[in-house]
Amino acid sequence: MRETYNFCAGPATMPYNVLKTAQKELLDWEQQGASVMEVSHRGKEFIALAKECEADLRELLNIPVNYKVLFLQGGGLAQFGLIPLNLLGDKMGDGKTTVDYLETGVWSKKSAIEGSRYAVSNIVYSGKSEGYINVPDKNAINVNPESAYLHICSNETINGVEFFYDIKNCPIPVVADMSSNILSRRIDVSQYGLIYAGAQKNIGPAGLTVVIIREDLLGKASKFVPDALNYTLQAENDSMLNTPPTFAIYLMSLVLKELKEKGGLVEMEKLNHKKAFMLYSTIDNSRLYRNPVHVDARSNMTIPFTLADPTLDALFLKEAEAHNLINLKGHRSVGGMRASIYNAMPIEGVIALTNFMKDFEARYYS
């Protein structure tokens, strides 16, 4: 195994076995005499890989047959604008069409700002006044039935809050940014109109974006959408309208295989809960560390925490790195620390971190 544990928020740590397999196959994939990065995306070998990759994703997430799976580029941030461009059609920019947003942190706030270029952003819920430390009660979400859709960010990587429920029977399509918690637990895809996720947390490397869209939402794109970013055209061409990020899809396929071998999302959900519980318990039983998020909304993926004595921050990071615990510095907008413990973070990494945290407190804050 690796000597270091990487807690980076993204691009995040990759599964060790996946990297080893990629290293082994880097120069000769499928006996092609070339890397997967060097062969045609229209060749039968790569097309078979892409189809198998989609099939594995469908199996893991139990995606209904009336949903299309797209392998796109541009990252999750690009989808903030591409979603209204693809879903609003002729209604875009008419000054009357609204889109509802649940503002639970930095990324959902950014999505609402970007969306306001194309429609009226209606903030149904905002956690700003509290400092983005909670999500709305599932029974208290009141959407405008005339809005085009409701947008949520299911896990806020900077603020460390997560939705642990699906918004069921919503009168308008629910669009969810699942960039940082997709594949970490079971979800009911049928409750969503569209799910999107940048790959660089739980799926694979940066450069690939997965979009899962219900078929009735296709065919609504504005005439201003470039062909390569048009969901309908990409769906009609099996995400091969232009050259896809082939190496990222290859790595994603390896990640999905490993998830299946480990027991799928049922087992990942158990493991991720165990890892998060271990770290939160260390924080809550400490006088030095603090996590501000409401207990019921605490993310299992991204855990920010602060030190009671901020003058110890630099020393904490320096000693953590000396203990092979890297990339724990918090986001520049909130400071403190952040431990991203996505699927690929082994429980041994969390044990090493919590042991270090307890030892550090004993030495410097007793």
Automatic annotation (TrEMBL):
Q: Which cofactor does it need?
A: pyridoxal 5'-phosphate
Which keywords does this Swiss-Prot/TrEMBL entry list? Answer: Amino-acid biosynthesis, Aminotransferase, Cytoplasm, Pyridoxal phosphate, Pyridoxine biosynthesis, Serine biosynthesis, Transferase
Question: What are the subcellular locations of this protein?
Answer: Cytoplasm
**EC class:** transferase
Chief location of this protein? cytoplasm
Kindly name one Pfam family recorded for this protein: Aminotran_5
Cofactor: record remark = Binds 1 pyridoxal phosphate per subunit.
Does the record's keyword annotation contain Transferase?
Answer: yes
Q: Which reaction does it catalyse?
A: 4-(phosphooxy)-L-threonine + 2-oxoglutarate = (R)-3-hydroxy-2-oxo-4-phosphooxybutanoate + L-glutamate; O-phospho-L-serine + 2-oxoglutarate = 3-phosphooxypyruvate + L-glutamate
Q: Using the record's annotations, give every residue carrying the modification N6-(pyridoxal phosphate)lysine.
A: K201
Q: Which domain of life is it from?
A: Bacteria
Sites where the protein binds L-glutamate: R42
Q: Does the keyword Ubl conjugation apply?
A: no
* EC number(s) per entry: 2.6.1.52
- Residues the record lists as binding pyridoxal 5'-phosphate: W107, T157, D177, Q200, N242, T243
The annotated pathway is: Cofactor biosynthesis; pyridoxine 5'-phosphate biosynthesis; pyridoxine 5'-phosphate from D-erythrose 4-phosphate: step 3/5; Amino-acid biosynthesis; L-serine biosynthesis; L-serine from 3-phospho-D-glycerate: step 2/3
Q: Which GO terms describe its molecular function?
A: O-phospho-L-serine:2-oxoglutarate aminotransferase activity
The record ties this protein, via InterPro entries, to: Aminotrans_V_dom, Aminotrans_V_PyrdxlP_BS, Pser_aminoTfrase
- Aminotransferase class V domain sequence ranges: 5-352
**Functional description taken from the UniProt entry:** Catalyzes the reversible conversion of 3-phosphohydroxypyruvate to phosphoserine and of 3-hydroxy-2-oxo-4-phosphonooxybutanoate to phosphohydroxythreonine.
Q: How does it assemble?
A: Homodimer.
Provide the family line: Belongs to the class-V pyridoxal-phosphate-dependent aminotransferase family. SerC subfamily.
- Protein's name in the database: Phosphoserine aminotransferase
Could you tell me which species this protein originates from?
Ignatzschineria rhizosphaerae
